[in-house]
Specification:
With 252 residues, the chain is of the alpha/beta class. The protein has one domain: Rossmann fold (3-Layer(aba) Sandwich), CATH 3.40.50.720. Helices cover 35% and strands 16% of the residues. The protein has five helices and eight strands. It has an eight-stranded mixed β-sheet with strand order 3-2-1-4-5-6-7-8, with helices on both faces. α1 crosses α5, α2 runs parallel beside α3 and α3 runs parallel beside α4. The longest helix has 24 residues. The N and C termini lie far apart (35 Å).
């Protein structure tokens, strides 16, 4: 049974949005937010619009590599709910077939792979923030969160490799910090953070699970519940930081 998200600190009658809402973690977040008694509407944003029998759901198409499409999605969100209490960007790219895999050595570096990783992992969430941060509720706690990764921490990097993924997530962390500074000037109740979900049993991590202890491999439902628990305890003083699934702050 899925853990039920509470989100008590946000208040009630919440409108929330999950970008990447049909992916592994994204779909689990949608499920738990849909069961939350304080949530009225869940906007499910993905590349392909999908119908849902749940009357709380509204499907909106979005492509993180197309800013015009992101702008249209933000307008559709505004028309649907006017303001949002929570926006979660639950997308990420680590591999994509034989032509795009994490680099084990600098010999494997490719400009095309680097650009693709930055487009999806860094530029995409940044452009979502550009168009969705103005929709955050200014009258009470509201949060913009994007899935980051511990391997994006420069201070924590002791293994090397994975150049494109590491550097694109490090860029995302800088974008989050910079966005948070501007957001705090415009919305005193707004919070902008990165979230590290740990190793979750999804297609993103599937090829790299061999050496992960079974107890450390999370189901999407378990991960979603932990991330929502972290969001529930955040305050404006936490804005601009990156937090792991257990609530611990990750150094940049």
């Amino acid at each position: 049974m899925n853990q039920r998200a509470q989100l008590r600190s946000f208040g009630d009658n919440l409108n929330v949005a999950v970008v990447g809402g049909t992916g592994g973690i994204g779909a689990a977040l949608v499920d738990q937010l849909s069961d939350c008694p304080f949530v009225d509407t869940v906007l499910v944003l993905s590349r392909i619009e999908r119908s849902s029998p749940n009357p709380r759901h509204k499907s909106i198409t979005i492509d993180l590599e197309d800013e015009d499409g992101i702008a249209r999605a933000a307008l559709a969100a505004k028309n649907a709910v006017e303001t949002l209490s929570l926006v979660i960007v639950a997308t990420g790219l680590l591999h994509d077939g034989a032509g795009f895999q994490p680099e084990r050595s600098w010999k494997e570096l490719s400009p095309d792979s680097l650009l693709r990783a930055f487009q999806v992992n860094a530029f995409g969430p940044l452009l979502v923030a550009k168009h969705f941060l103005p929709l955050l509720d200014k009258n009470r706690k509201s949060v913009f969160a994007a899935l980051s990764a511990r391997v994006g921490s420069i201070e924590d990097n002791r293994l090397g490799g994975w150049y494109a993924y590491r550097s694109s997530k490090a860029a995302l962390n800088m974008f989050i910090r910079t966005l948070s500074i501007e957001l705090s000037r415009r919305n005193s109740n707004g919070i902008c953070v990165g979230l590290h979900p740990g190793t979750v049993d999804t297609t993103l991590s599937k090829p790299f699970q061999r050496n992960v202890p079974l107890n450390d491999l999370k189901s999407p439902a378990q991960s979603a519940g932990q991330l929502l628990d972290v969001l529930d305890v955040l305050s404006p003083e936490d804005t601009g930081a990156v937090f792991a699934w257990d609530g611990q702050r990750i150094p940049f």
